[in-house]
Fold this sequence. Notes:
The chain is an alpha/beta fold. The chain has six helices and eleven strands.
Amino acid sequence: MSGVSRSGGMSKVRDVPRISDVSSGQKSRLAAALKVLLIGDSAVGKSSLLLRFSENDFRHDLTSTIGVDFLIRTMDIDGERVKVSIWDTAGQERYRTITEAYYRNAHGILLIYDITSKSSFDNVRGWIRSIEEHSTKGVQVTLVGNKADMDAHRVISKEQGQQLASEFRVPFFETSAKADINVDDIFVCIARESKRLYDETHSLNAEKPTCVNLQGATVPAQVISSCCA
């Protein structure tokens, strides 16, 4: 099973043989087409997480994403075949307008910081505000503290990450692209919860969801929903 990645006009085919793939012989129709974003500051490891998930590989020489890169992958989520487009966005401020344009119609967002970088953690609140402003209501968000293998250089404790996630009512993982810690878990989790949002949105019988903003007040507009509860 292959996915197609395009960046800056260049495209390449990536082999994606990891868990939850649907076999090529399976003929069942697609149950959903999902859009998932990876956002966060530059150099937090977004591209490395995607590379580990898609190719089970890690490279020290990955260059920073320019604009947006993406991978399309077919996955088996709870027995249903879904197509997931995973968008790896640039973290630099000069690309922020480009990145924000891709928020709309996203079903899930992995918001990533680097446990060895206080600034990337402090900037999570700014990314949350950006999600609130530009994303579709009900978007599923998971907070991810990456580079968990670098514990000797840690400046953000796991408890700090958990506390921030609790404040915003979103789930929390620590990951390592290098050591392959929790990488599959975050992608399978966000795909599963994105599928649930997709089903709710596309069901004629679904009740209109109550929307809760990050401050806890009930509102009818832009919201963030938790996943993997």
